[in-house]
């Protein structure tokens, strides 16, 4: 198991990851060998290793289950495993496909685990062929996968009576605010929203809320966090 880790604190303000939801799968056939790539969004090493364990059970008759994952907004945790392929021909090319992937705006990819399941087709690919096959398998899967941008934003809550919540949420979405989910009690809806943690943006939001609710709703700060941009 190869390992790369940096000790410096994260300074990243944004990165790309898989859209939340089900695993994404993509298959290539190269000289009769099947390369089945499975991508999963993960938060930690335990989640990445759980994916490997699940796929070993599902594809129990496959010869190889090669893995790579990258974690953290600045890609600070990186792991790969060749799982029986010649050293350096599977895990490292997969990891490089993950770490070097960039969106149109130059954003790096993280919090993603990739497993390539290989069914041997009877034709030897050679070291160079294996490197190309595993790299291409992950790159092709990423090109087709649903990706989202994540950004570190200020988190806020707006509380107001249930009857008024739906209209205000629509107004805020239309104005470009990122909504992060609602909570409820017997009387109030507690709407979560995110925006740049900057005085000008926060003050503009306060003025908009005052205008939309005739002063009936206030903006309560609740720290900062990583948010999927919609």
Text of the CATH class of the largest domain: Alpha Beta
Number of helices: 5
**Shape, principal axes of CA atoms:** elongated
Proportion of residues in β-strands: 35-45%
Poorly predicted regions are: 1-8
> Which structural class do you get from the secondary structure elements?
alpha+beta
Mean pLDDT: 92
- Tell me the domain tally: 2
User: Strand arrangement, largest sheet?
Assistant: 1-6-5-7-4-3
Distance between the termini: 36 Å
What is the multimeric organization of the chains shown?
single chain
The arrangement of helices and strands along the chain is EEEEHEEHEHEHEEHE
Radius of gyration from CA coordinates: 22 Å
- The CATH superfamily name of the largest domain is Impact, N-terminal domain
Instruction: Give a short account of the largest sheet.
Output: 6 strands, antiparallel
Do you know the CATH architecture of the largest domain? 2-Layer Sandwich
The third-level CATH topology of the largest domain is: Ribosomal Protein S5, domain 2
Helix content: 25-40%
Number of strands: 11
What does this structure look like?
The protein has 230 residues and is of the alpha+beta class. It folds into 2 domains: 2-145, 2-Layer Sandwich (Ribosomal Protein S5, domain 2), CATH 3.30.230.30; 149-228, 2-Layer Sandwich (Alpha-Beta Plaits). It is 30% helix and 37% strand. The chain is built from 5 helices and 11 strands. The strands form 2 sheets. The protein has a 6-stranded antiparallel β-sheet, with helices on both faces. Strands 2, 8, 9, 10 and 11 form a 5-stranded antiparallel β-sheet that branches. A hairpin with a 2-residue loop joins strand 3 (24-30) and strand 4. Helix 2 packs parallel to helix 3 (126-144). The two termini are 36 Å apart. Residues 1-8 have low confidence and may be disordered.
